[in-house]
């Protein structure tokens, strides 16, 4: 550079571009600093900035300085300041297109680190402003390298780093903030939705290995089932007081609420950004749920070794369900007109090709093979919509995710409870008889208690439960409206005896919709009963649902599912057990709802009918 300039020892606009490029190629720029002033006082920050080894960090700092100069320089110097700013963008463009010419520079790592630093330093918006200009430049020139080829190594780095993080690590949420920006930026989001597609869409376990799946797999549940040693939560529970356990659970719930909100926002960004990203993320969700449908099979629970090789984890589906529940909240209100736009014929659509999926907005597969609440009449051909709305698709995806996730974990909780009780009895007996097996039993009890407390914490996050309650109450309203033949978007008044309905839409509603509802209220009664009392005003809708479906084989054929609704009734009833609820006020509102229920006679009749159906 010096030889090119001959006797000139200053920079001007003629040579600044060459000077910047040459400086970027220096392996140790700090060894080539020139002090422009004769003062003996060292300017350490200036030396640090000028000698910055990481090229991307240096270019961004130049961008910030040039941007600041633009606001300060006289008008005659403005073009020079703008040119300097543009040079930082063009050199960053070159850096991403041909990173191999810069020695010992991992530009992709530098991008992730720059974004992390900007989040900590509260100048994230400046970094994104810089990136927007670089992205615009990169997408206009894809001859050397496509924009996807630039972004994939960045996603690889994020995937590797996030995989090592835990739910309660603050750093995790900074990475999620980076991904929130990526899912809002139209060019990056396009690459993201392609990047997360698994190589084999039919392999359920592969979804967990994608970048989105890696995030969904983070939880306070055991990463490796049965392996407590490396687990970070509820270790040695017998040495912790109930208060300490409660504090730890509350801490986990705070992180979970934020975690689920971030995932929800990522999904929402992709759904709203463009038709392309919407289609791709819905296809990912639909294919994922279809590929993991075997999670509900009885054999899957009896062969855990094969189960974990074939399907995504419990944590994955619990988090996915929680995020989808948040997407459903805008229409999960009992009197929502949007709720009644749900079209159950969606569940009868046979498998479509990708273009048909995009046009019709049907991304779930295999639902036409599900057992529905009632069999379709032979000549009953559904009238399919040309295109289904997002309310319909969201509800179906969410119910499917709950069926694959929450349902299985609820079963595990019951089994854990039973095993803990048996172990506790055996341990006490061994202690009383001074048996040498007492220590071994105590250790088994400790390990199992860690699993139980972790599972309970994962399943009882208050906001997730409240969202699920809103969904299930809304589902009770929706199914009741379908049961009385409502095909519009205005609520019909419920009157008894019920009208006869021909060609009922219930013939297209999968049984797992009602099963999820029953499962959830039974779970609340066992493990989170305190949520029912504040929500007592919603319980009348559940009572209507139980009254209509429990005793009516023409609206719900499966007698065992109808018997489950009788359990739902028991679950939501006020239990005046003084040992568990010493304050009568803890069931006051539920008691009021039950005592004032106007269809009590029909409810009693329904309970007798289901008993007769099962027993005789």
TrEMBL record:
Catalytic activity: S-ubiquitinyl-[E2 ubiquitin-conjugating enzyme]-L-cysteine + [acceptor protein]-L-lysine = [E2 ubiquitin-conjugating enzyme]-L-cysteine + N(6)-ubiquitinyl-[acceptor protein]-L-lysine
UniProt source species: Micrurus lemniscatus lemniscatus
GO molecular function terms listed in the Swiss-Prot or TrEMBL record: ubiquitin-ubiquitin ligase activity
The organism's place on the tree of life at top rank: Eukaryota
Pathway(s) of this molecule: Protein modification; protein ubiquitination
Pfam family, one: Ufd2P_core
Enzyme Commission no: 2.3.2.27
UniProt-recorded name of the protein: RING-type E3 ubiquitin transferase
Keywords linked to the UniProt accession: Transferase, Ubl conjugation pathway
Segments forming domain Ubiquitin conjugation factor E4 core: 212-616
Example of a GO cellular component annotation carried by this entry: ubiquitin ligase complex
Example of a GO biological process term: ERAD pathway
């Amino acid at each position: 550079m010096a030889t090119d300039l001959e006797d000139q020892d200053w920079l001007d606009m003629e040579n600044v571009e060459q000077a910047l490029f040459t400086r970027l190629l220096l392996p140790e720029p700090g060894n080539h600093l020139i002090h422009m002033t004769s003062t003996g006082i060292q300017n350490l920050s200036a030396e640090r900035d000028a000698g910055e080894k990481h090229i991307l960090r240096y270019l961004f700092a130049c961008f910030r300085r040039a941007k600041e100069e633009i606001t300060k320089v006289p008008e005659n110097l403005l073009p020079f300041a703008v040119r300097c700013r543009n040079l930082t963008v063009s050199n960053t463009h070159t850096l991403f297109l041909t990173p191999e010419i810069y020695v010992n520079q991992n530009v992709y790592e530098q991008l992730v680190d720059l974004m992390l630093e900007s989040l900590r330093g509260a100048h994230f918006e400046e970094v994104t402003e810089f990136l927007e200009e670089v992205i615009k430049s990169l997408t206009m020139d894809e001859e050397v390298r496509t924009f996807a080829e630039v972004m994939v190594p960045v996603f690889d780095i994020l995937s590797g780093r996030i995989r090592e993080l835990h739910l309660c690590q603050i750093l995790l949420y900074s990475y999620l903030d980076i991904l929130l920006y990526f899912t809002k930026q139209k060019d990056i989001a396009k690459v993201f939705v392609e990047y997360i597609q698994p190589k084999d869409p039919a392999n359920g376990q592969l979804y967990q290995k994608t970048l989105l799946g890696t995030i969904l797999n983070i939880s306070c549940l055991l990463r490796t089932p049965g392996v407590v040693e490396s687990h970070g939560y509820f270790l040695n529970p017998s040495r912790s007081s109930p208060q300490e356990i409660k504090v730890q659970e509350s801490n986990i719930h705070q992180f979970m609420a934020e975690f689920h909100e971030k995932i929800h926002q990522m999904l929402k960004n992709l759904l709203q950004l463009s038709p392309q990203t919407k289609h791709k993320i819905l296809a990912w969700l639909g294919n994922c749920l279809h590929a993991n449908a075997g999670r509900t099979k009885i054999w899957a629970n009896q062969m855990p070794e094969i189960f974990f090789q074939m399907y995504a984890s419990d944590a994955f589906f619990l988090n996915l369900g929680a995020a989808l529940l948040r997407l459903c909240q805008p229409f999960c209100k009992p009197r929502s007109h949007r709720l009644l736009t749900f079209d159950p014929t969606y569940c009868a659509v046979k498998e479509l090709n990708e273009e048909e999926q995009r046009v019709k907005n049907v991304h779930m597969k295999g639902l036409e093979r599900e057992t529905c609440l009632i069999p379709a009449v032979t000549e009953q051909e559904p009238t399919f919509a040309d295109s289904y709305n997002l309310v319909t698709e969201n509800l179906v995806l969410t119910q499917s995710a709950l069926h694959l996730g929450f349902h299985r974990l609820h079963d595990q909780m019951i089994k854990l409870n039973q095993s803990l009780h048996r172990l506790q009895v055996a341990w006490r007996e061994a202690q009383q008889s001074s048996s040498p097996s007492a220590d071994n039993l105590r250790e088994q009890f400790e390990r199992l208690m860690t699993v139980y407390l972790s599972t309970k914490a994962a399943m009882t996050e208050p906001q997730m439960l409240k969202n699920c309650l809103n969904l299930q109450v809304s589902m009770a309203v929706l199914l009741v409206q379908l049961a009385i033949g409502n095909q519009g978007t205005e609520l019909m008044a419920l009157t008894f005896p019920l009208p006869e309905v021909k060609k009922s839409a219930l013939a297209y509603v999968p049984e797992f919709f009602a099963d999820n509802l029953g499962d959830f209220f039974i779970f609340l009664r066992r493990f989170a009963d305190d949520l029912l009392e504040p929500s007592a005003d919603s319980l009348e809708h559940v009572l209507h649902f139980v009254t209509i479906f429990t005793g009516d084989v023409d609206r719900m054929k499966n007698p065992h599912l109808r018997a489950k609704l009788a359990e739902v009734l028991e679950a939501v009833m006020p239990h005046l057990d003084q040992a568990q609820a010493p304050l009568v006020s803890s069931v006051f509102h539920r008691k009021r709802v039950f005592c004032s229920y106007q269809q009590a006679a029909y409810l009693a009749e329904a309970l007798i009918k289901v008993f007769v159906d099962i027993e005789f």
